Amino acid sequence: MQPKAITHHGKPLGGARFPAICAPLVGRTREALLAEAAAVAEKQPDLIEWRVDFYEGIGDAKGVAELAGRIKHVCQGLPILFTCRWSREGGEKISLSQAEVTRLHRAVCESGHVDFIDFEMGNEPDHVRQVREASRANATQLILSFHDFQRTPAIEELNRRFAQAEQLGADVAKVAVMPGEMQDVLVLLAATLQSSQKLRIPLVSMSMAGAGAVTRLCGGAFGSALSFAIGQSASAPGQMPIEDLATALAIVRKALGPSR
Predict the structure, then answer these.
(1) What does the pLDDT look like over 149-204, one tens digit per residue?
(2) How far apart are CA 253 and CA 260, in angstroms?
């Protein structure tokens, strides 16, 4: 079965390359972000993620939405993923309430400056619904995520999380977990393969830190449609430089044959 690619304007993200590559922006000021965006865009990832939880102006929803437009311009039209992570999800400490974060996502969707948004599926159901409605109304694709930075849940739980994202109306399901041992990496890959064969939507998965780095290289063979790489700075443990990842993924694709 062919893996499901994430699409952008009706075409597979990354074209013939599977998985696609996403590079994060983690600048803390407007000037730092725009300089980082220009430098990362030159490396031509398939998707650029703005991790807004690193940004010191996160409390100004209107300003964030406007800055998303500037980032889009600097990135020369590359698709933009907007993500806000709480510290419990591996993000920075932010002072916003969940309701304020939800309003921030709605404002960014309404701006039309981003192509994808990432929202934790474990947030309050009403907030998930609001973000889902805002993304649909503004043609912004929704990635619903599950993160566990302490452990790797059992395969049944991982499959349930992938399925939950689809049931909640996600366009893409994402699961990221922390391995305690190499066996946990196999559990994550097995769940990815099983869920990719059952779900209608594309999915993204990763096992984090050094032990899980292999999933960033071979996850596509098991159905994960996106791999995250360092453009200038890492946003999560286990990421590697975009040049190294692109080279490694090309080797894996060649080895797997033309169907990948």
Answers:
(1) 899 999 999 999 999 999 999 999 999 999 999 999 999 999 999 999 999 999 99
(2) 6
The Cα-based distances of 117 to 72, 82, 164, 172 in angstroms read 14, 5, 17, 10
| R_g of the chain computed on alpha carbons | 17
Catalytic residue from among 43, 72, 147, 198: 147
Look at the block and give the residue holding tokens 């990832």.
45
Q: Scan for tokens 């779900």, then name that residue.
A: 199
Least confident of 56-60, 112-116, 210-214: 210-214
Closest CA to 218 of 184, 256, 180, 244: 256
Per-residue pLDDT of 115-131, as tens digits, reads 999 999 999 999 999 99
174 among known catalytic residues: yes
Spell out the domain ranges in the chain.
Answer: 7-256
Backbone φ, ψ for residue 60 (5° rounding)? -100, 90
CATH superfamily of 7-256: Aldolase class I (3.20.20.70)
Active-site residue (options: 72, 105, 127, 174): 174
Residue 257 pLDDT greater than 90, yes or no = no
